[in-house]
Fold these 3 entries.
Entry 1:
Amino acid sequence: MPPRPTAAPSLFSETPISNPPATKKTDWINAHCDGGARGNPGPAGYGALIQDNEGTVLAELAEFLGMRTNNYAEYSGLLGCLQYALDHHHPRLRVVSDSELMVKQIQGKYQVKSPDLKPLYEEAKNRIAKLEAFEITHALRHKNKDADRLANEAMDRGMRRGPAIGSSSPSQPAAPPIIKANPYPTKSEAPPNPYAKADTMLRGFTKDGVVHILGGATLPDGIFVKIIRE
């Protein structure tokens, strides 16, 4: 009897093949961020443009921050970029900002003396430590136009002067979607806002150009007071 032919090897292995590991993102991403306040403090917002190493826009970040200072808004822009990189698993981040103060504080060239900025600085350093590589550089405002535009659009929306996020004119192509990215993933992480609107009205009187608050209440420095004649 002739030998029985052996079966040809199957094209499909009976041993399950595990999926190959996901490719780790190792390329740098680049972020331009800006923040501002109309009045210092005043209605504040930040904006950021995130691009890959080829210049393709990955995201536009924008957030209205309420009544805050310019420096708070600038730091919020940096924190928003850092959180985007962490959330989307980009381990290498370059940031460009026109805030010389913030850039040099993060670089260690300036000390952080303001008690209002210290928690922002510490949170930024904490997020930077979670990345494999990080760089931050200062640029003049005219080289940071996109981030400046996004920050002003965030302030306009917060003050109800501009269109809603994602709206576009019928005669114009749709703009890239703006990610409404809170720089603090949970509200508890955000420093307290000394400029937030009070829940109750305080009563007092003026004498010799000085406002005296009844009941022993005190006001934090830098807030705006509206005087109503009774």
Entry 2:
Amino acid sequence: MKVKKILVSQPRPTSDKSPYFDIAQKYGVDIDFRPFIKVEGLTAKEFRQSKITISDYTAIIFTARTAVDHFFRLCEEMRVTIPDTMKYFCTTESIALYLQKYTLYRKRKIFHGNTGKMEELIPFLTKHNKENYLYAVSDVHKEDTSLLDNAKIRYTKAVMYRTVSTQFDPNEKFDYDMLLFFSPAGIASLLKNFPDFKQDDVKIGCFGLTTAQAVKDAGLRLDIEAPTVSAPSMTAALDNFLRDEAAEEAKA
């Protein structure tokens, strides 16, 4: 097979049951895992520069567990006492349940959607329209806030963490036949670490429409895309690609 060595731009799976390991064995390919990006929390000093006073708010909007972690970290660093009356609005149930790490779970103060889409939260937010909402986000957040604006929700976006590129050693080998990406920031990191990168025969795969657009905007060729009807996950898309490649080689 032409593809022998694959780089997945995510941390190595913690479970041996990951489909990636099955694919590696099935097709006899090597799969490495290396995040191209990492998340850093803003320091208390940096957050204070935003002039946002957390105690002024009566409710928090969370769209990621990472946001939950950095909200409570900043509160601890700045010695902010969170009142028991604080309400939390989460885009998924998993984020809502994750709050148990930091606060007692009570249905009367924690509300959530199911699909991760903001529109599912709007009925809860409008029902509690007297609240002053703090919306915890990253520096590269893509969430559409027009729904909040149209619903006349009183909110303030607060950047609490940022995405930065992982630094590769200039002398380390980068001899992969395929690269798999999961965010536009990953593409930006590739170009930052390897400004002279030439794609040539290297296959590039990605997950998500915004990542696919970032690949195209960078002038790169997109060879594998997920999710699709036939490939709802990145591993399914990879399996399909390698299967087709093996079939073509068998015919030759």
Entry 3:
Amino acid sequence: MTGYQRWALAASPTGPAQAAAAELADAADWVPLDEADVVIALGGDGFMLHTLHRMLERRMAPGAAPVPVFGMNLGTVGFLMNEWRRHGLQERLARARRFQVTPLQMTATAVDGRICTLPAINEVSLLRETRQTAKLEVRVNDRIVLPELACDGILCATPAGSTAYNLSAQGPILPLGSGMLALTPISPFRPRRWRGAILPDKTRISLTVLDPAKRPVSAVADQREMRDVAQVDISMDRARDLTLLFDPEHALDERITMEQFIA
């Protein structure tokens, strides 16, 4: 037995994921997502992030416990997913390793004074909106560490997200459980030698947009964007941790570690 009594099935709208969901229709007495104690997610990494954000919304309810998610890859890369297999799901859940993922919290203040607070499981990124280079002031724990960073943008990644956009921007891979965050510039121009920082995950990061009228910047928390920001504050949201389930032979921590040896 898995220990999970109420299973929910979430599937991407893509053809392969919908076909897989149809194959699993008789595998369990599926319940709605809000009633489940485990979720089976079918799709790619983008759909897994979408599902995890739904879990974050559920965690906002008083006394709500994290609901683990077991993903099966019906997408492209599937870094956050397990291999798709129709049979043996109950046995796989019983053997699965649990990994806790703590999201970031982004509080973005717009030029017009609007404030938006969003979670991010992979990364928070700031990106220039026009051909003009973005200019940012970077503060760490209320200390100005870079008075002016000229760049296309900057991102702050969790260990779980360090192999995604962060890696494409030449940022470091962070082992799961390292207790670190990656602060990585995107196409930095000045200062030329600054290539980013690895910071303890207790760090509070503040990014202020310099001259936002001439050099507008947008802020993105995973897949959700806020345009024309004046300042973005980033910290860990430890009140809403998430749980991912992986087959022991294909676990997330090992996968992140081995990414360092892929040519």
